[in-house]
Every structure is written in structure tokens, then in C-alpha cells.
Amino acid sequence: MKKVISTPNAPAAIGPYSQAIEVGNMVFLSGQIPVNPATGDVVEGGIKEQTTQVFENIKAVLAEAGLTLDNVVKTTVFLADIAMFVEMNEVYASYFSGAYPARSAFAVKQLPKGALVEIESIAVRG
Prior knowledge:
The protein is of the alpha+beta class. It has a single domain (2-124), classed as CATH 3.30.1330.40. The protein has helices at residues 47-64, 85-94; strands spanning 2-5, 20-23, 26-32, 72-79, 102-107, 117-124. Strands 1-2-3-6-4-5 form a six-stranded mixed sheet, with helices on one face. A hairpin with a 2-residue loop joins strand 2 (20-23) and strand 3 (26-32). Helix 1 runs parallel beside helix 2 (85-94).
């Protein structure tokens, strides 16, 4: 059985997808972009501010599922420009303690709403 996870504390889906889906002890989060859920707009600033908002959105979806960043086992980072990797990574590292999740990072041609970063993640209960 799959369960839809949804919270108003993260940006609403802008297409035919869910914020997250729980199956068994795993929660699969859709990619989060740096949209402020209160305004629906991409946050102002550069890659550091945008990465911070992405993580706040991820935390909100995880919280709705009763999880935290400590439950995240895999992330995929999409960047509008790989030259932003170092600055994104500084913010990324500040959100995790202990064992970091497995990760992939890619530069892509374009992200929704002109975002500089999108991060999808997989979390596990237990």
C-alpha cells in the first residue's frame, strides 16, 4: 500500500505528483525547489539562500511523515550550474549530522520556476 504525504508547510505540487509517497518503511520525496510555501515564489538570493529554502521544504515534508533529516538515506541534487556545487555543499553539510546520506549531484539545463537547485530524497523509518 502506498500513502500520500502532503503538508501546507512545503510548496504544493505544481503538477500531477505528490510531495511524498510512503511505501512500507520508505518515504520517497519529490524534488523540492526553493519556493516559499507561504508566497509560492522562489526565494530571493543566490544558491545558499535557495539551498536553505529547499532543506526547509524537505524538513516540512519529512515532519508530516513523522521523520527528520536523520532518516534520509539518499539525495539527488540538481543544479542549474555545477559551478554552484561548492556553495550548495556548504549549506547541504550544515543540515546533516553523523553519517551523511548517499548522494548524486548533476548540472541540468533548467529547473522549474528558474530555480538554481532542486533536491529529491529518500528516507527510511527505523
